[in-house]
Amino acid sequence: MDFFRKVPKIELHAHLNGSLSNRTLKELGAIKYGKDDPATTADECFYKITTGQSLTLKECFQKFKYAHDLTDQQETLAYATRAVIQDFAADNVVYLELRTTPKTTAHMSKKQYLTTVLDTIRKVQNEIPSITVKLLPSIDRSKGLQEAEENVSLVVELCEEYPDIIKGMDLSGAPFGTSFSDFGVILKKAQSCGLKMALHCGEFEDDDEIRDMFEFGTDRIGHGTFIRGTNLEVARKRGIPFECCLTSNVKCSTVSSYKEHHFKKLWDGGFAVCICTDDFGVFDTTLSQELSICCETYGLNLQDIIQLQENTIHYTFASEEEKQKLMEIFNNFKNTVKFV
Ligand code: IMP
Ligand code: ZN
Questions:
Q1: Catalytic residue (choose from 203, 209, 290, 310)
Q2: pTM over 0.70
């Protein structure tokens, strides 16, 4: 684990509210509820979550519910954003693209939600110079088209004020009963402003939707579990990077085991592919742990791990100058390691 922690890492697929550790959830509970913190009341599931006991999948998803409740005010949202960046930095992540869905809550407008996250990123980045952080505001498919329109308009407005942080958009959430083409029309507005697209793509079997996402021009593929045939060839030809989230997919049962995960096929086939955590708080993992799984399960060696991270630089939405700096970090790291 020591090597995996030490290697500089790049995280491109992380949802803010899914990346709250048990410790952060507990601290947020104390801020929001004080001594009425649900962790100390009769809510057994919350108690299990904050004490780190093993959970069922249903309980894992409860974490989103708790996280959303706890981050519904500016103070706790800023606290959560800071904690997530600190946790990634502590795992030696040097570049992070964080995602979050702007929400109207009892205490915040969507604009306040997003500016709270953006201002916190700006502040924390100055305090922790070892990590560069970008934001990809999300559209939650389950919230419908009006919310999607609102999010895109807000992002287009705010990317003028935060052009160094907002680099693209994410499409996520439960896709059931929705059609990508409706969201594609809305997302075009952001795309034509120069924002990159990191869509959850191929999370379930739907060849037509995947084709539509490729035609739309997604810049990266979130998961890509069910991409096959012609679509897979298109992904290869265009070099569209896959964001593979091993533990997330295993715990959500979209793949049957680590061994069966599509990462192996993509890596062996020379596809553009990177490793991400998705929701490290919900799935109880770290990027270092995901990389160690790559060695244990797919036989990657330590040089492969460094190569995997170096390749990932090219899949980021960072500027050329920022990519150069990341390459320097890797060159410096390589000069310090000796392989036997
Ligand atoms: P938030 O956007 O910061 O609130 O992060 C949590 C949200 O990310 C969830 O409510 C989902 O909309 C989305 N999300 C997290 N993981 C996944 C996934 O694996 N598939 C689709 N959506 C996800
Ligand atoms: Zn995701």
A1: 203
A2: yes
